[in-house]
Amino acid sequence: MNKSELISKMADDAGISKAQAQSALNSMISGVGGAMKKGDKVTLVGFGTWSVSRRNARTGRNPQTGAEIQIKAKNVVKFKAGSDLSGKVN
């Protein structure tokens, strides 16, 4: 499912226009991104938790040449599925 399909599903399920569903989805994505940028954790009970984790700098290898390369430290997004979401895919 891509973003357009999700927007259509949200609009149908909620009985709202696609524009309203798109606005709601964009607001949710913006809210989660803004909270994570501040270092906060975002939890939707039953669905899952988004968090930010620090990945330290490390040495890697170029798979084509085998040469060592330095990979910079960075923040990465982690998502842990909640029990309700996990139960739907099992």
CATH superfamily of the largest domain: IHF-like DNA-binding proteins
Low-confidence stretches: none
Instruction: Give the spatial strand order of the biggest sheet.
Output: 1-2-5
Number of domains: 2
Helix content: 40-55%
Give the CATH architecture of the largest domain: Irregular
Kindly provide the radius of gyration, computed on alpha-carbon positions and rounded to a whole number of angstroms. 18 Å
Report, as a whole number of angstroms, the end-to-end distance: 18 Å
SSE arrangement, N to C: HHEEEEEH
Beta-sheet strand percentage?
25-35%
Question: Major sheet: size, sense and barrel closure?
Answer: 3 strands, antiparallel
Please tell me about this protein's structure.
- The chain is of the alpha+beta class and 90 residues long.
- It contains 3 helices and 5 strands.
- It folds into 2 domains: 37 residues; 50 residues, IHF-like DNA-binding proteins (HU Protein, Chain A), CATH 4.10.520.10.
- A hairpin with a 3-residue loop joins strand 1 and strand 2.
Summarize the structure.
The protein is of the alpha+beta class and 90 residues long. It is 43% helix and 30% strand.
Protein traits:
90 residues, alpha+beta, HU Protein, Chain A, two-stranded antiparallel ribbon, 3 helices, 30% strand
List the helices and strands and how they pair.
Elements: H1 3-14, H2 18-37, E1 42-44, E2 48-55, E3 58-61, E4 68-71, E5 74-81, H3 83-89
Antiparallel strand pairs: 1-2, 2-5, 3-4
Helix pairs in contact: 1-2
